[in-house]
Amino acid sequence: MKTDRIERLFARTAHGIKPGLDVITALLENLGNPHRELKIIHVAGTNGKGSVCAMIESVLRASGLKTGLYTSPHLFTFNERFRVNGKNISNEELEKIIGEVEAADQERSQDSQPHENPARQASFFEMATAIAFEHFKRRKVDYAVIETGMGGRWDATNVVEPIISVITRIALDHAEYLGTELEKIAWEKAGIIKEGAPVICGPMPVEAEAVIYKEAAEKKVPILGSDEAAFFQPLERRWTDQLIDIEASGNAYRNVRLPLGGSYQLENCGIAVATLEDIADLEDLHLTMKKGLEAVKWPGRFQILSMKPPMLFDGAHNPNAAATLFQTLEDIFPRFGNGFVFGFMKDKDVEGILKELAPTIKKAWALTLAGDRSMSAEEIAEIGKNIGLEIEPTETIQSTREWVTDGKKRLLCFTGSLYLAAELRKCGFNF
Question: Residue 431 domain-assigned?
Fold first, then answer.
């Protein structure tokens, strides 16, 4: 449901991304600094951070704790970004809080001097972040799991003083804001590291890891690599889930049925488990790890939409994620003829993504997604042509479904953006 207030909020996306903490700090001050009343787990990274957030939240909630979860983007409704105990914020609560945050932002901008940066209107993401903190404060959550939007150091979420900071795998993305060097991107992500809060670091290239460890040393905080803290024994792998044994911090979790497909989710699970073990020690908690991991839900990541014929959706939107998708398809669907339906935002490295997937593409189509930020199907096809890929622009996915149904041992993968989810739901796929 899009009301006038939500429409006004989304209109702020036209002003683009505004890195920096001055505006969000002043805005939260006018709201009474709700974030200071929360125990926060802060998660940054290029790939996997949403899955890690979902697993951490699921385990905390399964352990009887009241949780807040703030992630982006949403698949279908804006409400999804703000969850308490796994439930989206209600329309009524959202409307009320948007009104109050709007008023606080108006007061802040009026109080500012014209030459001051805070005089500008708060951005869409700054407003959303303030809504999350206010909602979680009102609902008196025990723990809030907060995902950064982009980067870390100047991200609107980085006003928090977390109990623990988490950094997942780092790769190239958002180059126009974060740069094209891994070290520079790692420096941006490392900005979430705060004095007094331990750090969990996921597996990543050495040059990026060195930057993260250096920042932790400068802040004099302990840092632990998740691959040193959590160990996995895969027992069984299916299209939709995997059975694993986990050992971490002297604890053994046997026969865990993780309901997320793809071996890359074991890396994300390792980061989540290492983080949770640290939280349990810091906060003196007894966590029901197995129950929480088995209950996690995180759609849009190697999500099976249909078994016969096999159709799946994966929100891979940068070359590193595309390489992971390629490897997962090779592992789970060897010797299949793979069809792809692509949809992209304009700011993505489309050529890099297509190059990673090219060896496994048998047939490809392109869709123009809704919204001003989306790349047209014709532009996608042109980029494909430049690297030797034939991609057919299409206005509907019906013909693509016919292709996968008509042949033997064919698979259809929808990928390139999480915003494809809305198109898939329109076509009757369940999420």
Answer: no
Considering the domain architecture, whether residues 264 and 350 belong to the same structural domain is answered as: no
CB atoms within 10 A of CB 66: 15
* Rg of the chain, C-alpha, whole Å: 21
* 317 shares a domain with 226: no
CATH of the domain at 142: 3.40.1190.10
Distance, in Å, from the CA atom of 86 to the CA atom of 298, rounded to the nearest integer, reads: 11
Q: Give the domain range for residue 336.
A: 303-426
* Residue 58 covered by a domain: yes
Contact assessment for residue 348 and residue 46, using Cβ atoms and an 8 Å cutoff: no
pTM equals 0.94
Strands (E), 361-430: 361-366, 392-393, 410-415
CATH of the domain at 357: 3.90.190.20
List 223's β-bridge partners, or say none.
199
30 lies in some domain: yes
* pLDDT tens-digit map of 319-345: 999 999 999 999 999 989 999 999 999
> Which among 200, 163, 134 is positioned nearest to 65, based on CA atoms?
163
Alpha-carbon span 265 to 137, nearest angstrom: 31
**190 Cα distance to chain centroid:** 17
Instruction: Report d(CA 361, CA 397) in Å as an integer.
Output: 17
Q: Distances from the Cα of 326 to the Cαs of 87, 302, 314, 331, in angstroms? A: 33, 11, 11, 9
At position 37, the amino acid (one-letter code) is: E
pLDDT in tens, 76-96: 999 999 999 999 999 999 999
